[in-house]
Specification:
Number of helices of chain B: 4
CATH architecture of chain A: 3-Layer(aba) Sandwich
Strand order of the largest sheet of chain B: 1-2
Distance between the termini of chain B: 66 Å
Shape of chain A: globular
Oligomer: heterodimer
Structural class of chain B: mainly alpha
Radius of gyration of chain B: 26 Å
Helix content of chain B: 40-55%
Largest sheet of chain A: 2 strands, parallel
Number of domains of chain A: 1
Number of helices of chain A: 3
Radius of gyration of chain A: 14 Å
Order of helices and strands of chain A: EHEHEEEEH
Shape of chain B: rod-shaped
CATH superfamily of chain A: Glutaredoxin
Strand content of chain A: 25-35%
CATH class of chain A: Alpha Beta
Number of strands of chain B: 3
Distance between the termini of chain A: 9 Å
Order of helices and strands of chain B: HHHEEHE
Strand content of chain B: 5-15%
Largest interface: A-B, 60 and 51 residues
Largest sheet of chain B: 2 strands, antiparallel
């Protein structure tokens, strides 16, 4: 199970977050919000300085890329692990 | 002289307001659609409060609620205002996302750069086996894609 996190942050901002929070999985930078929009998660001007940001959501994909579980809003790690184990 | 009747409508209206707010907050993580049922419950609560207040003003000797009326109504208005505030915050944190891939649908392909400048594509994540990390290396079991608001 591989986690990846996506936001509208720039690469520099992602780098800062990786070092501050000691994140070990990839933090992907979608600064043009293309991927965010392909998932229909755009929150226009929802961030600081009126930047476009992503809504908070989690998508569990199986090895063929099919969505097996999704959730909108924050979710605990426990629940994520539990759903991942079902794959 | 008969004891005054308890003005249950005032209390029911107030109780429903609390229930609507609590229900909304509890369920909103599952779906934003819970906003409309909550709003409906608030409407019912308002009807009860207004009805209770009317009864009190028309028959003050029969119904209680001289102080309870305004207090419960005021509190219910505050509860509703808080509900509005929460609903607004919710809309900013997670959009309706009607176009997001549903369970059973294939996720859209993506290819983005990670914090180290490396390109990461979904197709690549799905096809590359997980690196040996103490257990047997195996085929990938899937990917968890987490969207977050960003560093601020």
């Amino acid at each position: 199970m591989k986690p990846v996190a996506i936001s509208a942050d720039t690469n520099d901002e992602s780098q800062k977050l990786v070092s501050v929070a000691k994140i070990t999985f990839p933090l992907l930078s979608d600064s043009q919000t293309q991927v965010i929009r392909s998932y229909d998660l755009l929150v226009p001007k929802g961030g600081q300085d009126n930047r476009d940001v992503s809504g908070i959501a989690e998508f569990l994909l199986d090895s063929s890329g099919q969505v097996r579980w999704r959730h909108f809003g924050e979710e605990d790690a426990e629940r994520l692990v539990k759903e991942a184990k079902k794959l | 002289m008969a004891a005054k009747r308890w003005n249950w409508r005032l209390w029911a209206g107030f109780g429903l307001s609390i229930a609507a707010l609590a229900g909304y907050i509890f369920y909103v993580n599952e779906t934003r659609a819970v906003f409309w049922p909550a709003l409906l419950v608030f409407v019912v609560a308002a009807v009860l409060l207004i009805s209770g207040a009317k009864r009190r003003s028309r028959e003050p000797e029969v119904y209680r609620g001289k102080i309870a009326g305004p207090v419960l109504t005021g509190l219910s208005v505050l509860v509703f205002a808080f509900f509005g505030f929460v609903a607004y915050q919710v809309s900013r944190v997670f959009p309706a996302a009607k176009g997001a891939p549903q369970v059973g649908q294939r996720s859209p392909e993506f290819s983005l750069v990670d914090a180290n400048g490396q390109n990461v594509a979904l197709a690549q994540l799905l096809s590359t086996p997980i690196a040996n990390s103490g257990g047997a290396a195996g085929a990938t079991k899937g990917v968890l894609v987490v969207f977050y608001r960003g560093y601020w």
